[in-house]
Amino acid sequence: MSTEQNLLTIRGVETYYGKIVALRGVDVDVKKGEIVTLIGANGAGKSTLMMTICGSPRARTGEIVFDGQDISRTPTHEIIRMGIAQSPEGRRIFPRMSVMENLQMGAQLVDDKHFDDDLKRVFDLFPRLKERANQRGGTLSGGEQQMLAIARALMSRPKLLLLDEPSLGLAPLIVKQIFEIIKELNSNEGLTVFLVEQNAFHALKLAHRGYVMVNGNITMSGTGAELLKRDEVRAAYLEGGAH
Ligand SMILES: Nc1ncnc2c1ncn2[C@@H]1O[C@H](COP(=O)(O)OP(=O)(O)OP(=O)(O)O)[C@@H](O)[C@H]1O
């Protein structure tokens, strides 16, 4: 595949935790304006890939090119400044800080002249957060915390949004709302999204393209529609699943 239109190009990335190998030579392409989904079972290495893109843990070998620059040795704060934001698994918001303070934390590495505009944009996307601006993060519902985690990531004005399991532990209706917002961000604002999900059905329906990860390797790739039709994908990630 040509890498010309890529916002993110990952080639031959290997990541270790001590002696344990978590990624075994991963190749992934994310083009500008795409939603790309990575699916895989528990422990396949999906979160490790997200974290490796952000520089912690570091890839031991391989190349990660973002917006034309190799970021495989770039410090995490610099990666965020360059335009990658992550909403991590388990929606790690700051529970004792208010919604507003959480959003301020998201904006701290970027120029604050855009703060008011960015705040308006996330409050338009997530009106419930506006209503709860002074409430502590930890008192929000699971769905609201997920919205806050995404909103916080958006406050750094990313070109690429990394979302790790945004549907984890949420009721189907909330999952639907969150996936609709991701779609809206992509189609209205052209935001590029790389999404990790165990909820393969919804994630592949939403995505332009997808990858399947098994035991630290990419084993399949294709358009979301192609992957949804594959027997191996259906058997491993869809049959009997909640969709
Ligand atoms: N901090 C760590 N130290 C040692 N091993 C780890 C660490 N984090 C993850 N691993 C191991 O690396 C492998 C990949 O884990 P990872 O969390 O990336 O998988 P995942 O696909 O995101 O799974 P899940 O959906 O459960 O989060 C697993 O074998 C896991 O046990």
From TrEMBL:
Q: What keywords appear on the UniProt entry? A: Amino-acid transport, ATP-binding, Nucleotide-binding, Transport
Which PROSITE patterns does this UniProt record tie to the protein? ABC_TRANSPORTER_1, ABC_TRANSPORTER_2
Organism field: Hoeflea alexandrii
Which residues are in the ABC transporter domain? 8-240
Instruction: Tell me the GO molecular function terms.
Output: ATP binding
Check the record and name the CDD domains matching this protein.
ABC_TM1139_LivF_branched
The protein's name: ATP-binding cassette domain-containing protein
Q: Which InterPro entries match?
A: AAA+_ATPase, ABC_branched_ATPase_LivF/BraG, ABC_transporter-like_ATP-bd, ABC_transporter-like_CS, BCAA_Transport_ATP-bd_LivF, P-loop_NTPase
